[in-house]
Fold each of these.
Amino acid sequence: MASFSQKFCLQYAISAFTLDQQCCIGDLWLRVYRHLDRCPDGQRATKPVQHIGHDILYGCQSMHLVVTVFLTAGLGIQLGVRNGAISIELARPVSYYFYIVSQEAGRIAYNALFRSLPIGLIFSLTVGFYVPSHWTTLGYSLLSLLLAIGISLNIFYLIGISSCWTTEISWAHFIILTLMFSLGGQMVPLTFLPEFLSQLAKWLPFAGVVYYPVLIFLQKADHSVLLLQAGWLLVLFFANHWITAAARQKVEIQGG
């Protein structure tokens, strides 16, 4: 069994690999910005764009994705469906939803400490790290990040609980990750998408997970987007509770 030091080194190796991936993506889009000679909002691409571009694409995205996108597939619910353990878990006198979400929240806290934080420290000690000019922005950024984690947890929970009907969720997990990376503004900035698709993507929950938290931190988005994030969180929260009740009824009818 691996020791703590071995696990610690492994987490730093994973962080370095994630950092390398983000550097490649960041360099690609930074070159695109320079080639177009303009920022995503239409301003001229001057030296500050290069500085903020590095922060967005190298540091902020790497730290952000670790705690919002790279979660356990289906939050592990599909495993309980396959071995039948979900029938016992649903029968417990506790909320199955909060039981599963709290377990993943613990994993997120671990990843934030041992994977996300090292990335931020590397950038702080080497190229520096972006600090908002207004301290209130940090509060809004933290709130946006918590909402993004909540949305992501509910999306992954929705995929996992659907395994009560589908059994296999690998295809759904792959689709959701693709949508988060493409319509969330990580692989392709939303402003580079066709106008109709760009406007549509800004209203989807994927932008609330990946796009808006980073823009708020960089003071490039209005705080009103927090209402959009909160709205999606509430919709997914109640939807998951309704689907969980349906799953419990399905398990009871089938006798576990």
Amino acid sequence: MLSAIARRRNLSSLAGDGINHEGLNKALSANGNPSFALILKIAHALNLELQLVTMR
């Protein structure tokens, strides 16, 4: 889901936030395995907030 949002908002605009374009493509690919820190950077660059909630 994060990959789709990032691609719609133009990956190159995220590259300026300390995330290089090649690394971003690799991390968001089907075989990518991004670190949690990178996920947080991407979310921040997209002006998104991650929340943890109790499972029901």
